[in-house]
Every structure is written in structure tokens, then in C-alpha cells.
TrEMBL record:
GO terms for cellular component: cytosol. This is Thioesterase. One of its GO terms (molecular function) is 1,4-dihydroxy-2-naphthoyl-CoA thioesterase activity. It comes from Subtercola boreus. InterPro entries: HotDog_dom_sf, PAAI_dom, Thioestr_dom. CDD domains: PaaI_thioesterase. Keywords: Hydrolase. Pfam families: 4HBT. Residues 26-101 form the Thioesterase domain. Belongs to the thioesterase PaaI family.
């Protein structure tokens, strides 16, 4: 996927992904690739919030794709909506190099003990 993290906290994380290699046959980024980028951001942030000895498990993800990219790089910005004791909710906005929003993804993670 070529995902590169540039910022990573429980409250906010940022990563980029190249368009090349992540397209559907029509030459635009595959919607599933947007979801992979978003889920990676949301899951890493949730696991940071969970803390030592606990893990985050994704229980729901939804995505609305509102644009497409054919070249360059896309960027996902993940923002915490809720950081609770047993649940986290993050929203991920994915945009192209011009700042145009391409996809909005929301992920909910359940937090539990690792053992």
C-alpha cells in the first residue's frame, strides 16, 4: 500500500499513500484503498489510547467516497471524536495534493485487555 505515517498520537494521526499501485482498473484510487489507509490510522491511534496491556479491535467502519485521485499522493488525517475507557471513535479525512476531500471514514474500536 505504501502508507507512510508522519504523525501518530491517540488524538490525531496523519499518513500518506501513493495513488500508483492502489488503483482500480479505471485508473482511480480504489475505495478499499481509502478504507485501508483510514483503518490503519484509526486503529493505530486507538491502540495508542488503549495503553500497555490493552488492545483495540475494530468493530465498525463506514466510508463515503466523494472524489477520486488518478496520480500523486493522498493524505489521511485522523481525528479523535471519542476516546473512552472501552470505545474509541475516529474520523479520517482523506484528501488529494490540492486539498480536495476524497473520502470521509469513521471507525469505532473496542478496547479490551490483551490477555
Amino acid at each position: 500500500m505504501g502508507i507512510e505515517f508522519t504523525e501518530l498520537t491517540a488524538e490525531r494521526s496523519v499518513a500518506t499513500m501513493p495513488v500508483e499501485g492502489n488503483t482500480q482498473p479505471f485508473g482511480i484510487v480504489h475505495g478499499g484503498a481509502y478504507v485501508v489507509l483510514a483503518e490503519s490510522l484509526g486503529s493505530f491511534s486507538a491502540n495508542l489510547h488503549a495503553g500497555e496491556g490493552r488492545i483495540a479491535m475494530g468493530i465498525e467502519v463506514s466510508a463515503s467516497h466523494t472524489g477520486s485521485a488518478t496520480s500523486g499522493t493522498v493524505t489521511g488525517v485522523c481525528t479523535a471524536i471519542k476516546l473512552g475507557r472501552t470505545l474509541t471513535v475516529h474520523e479520517i479525512a482523506i484528501s488529494d495534493e490540492a486539498g480536495r476531500r476524497l473520502s470521509t471514514v469513521r471507525i469505532t474500536n473496542f478496547l479490551r485487555d490483551a490477555s
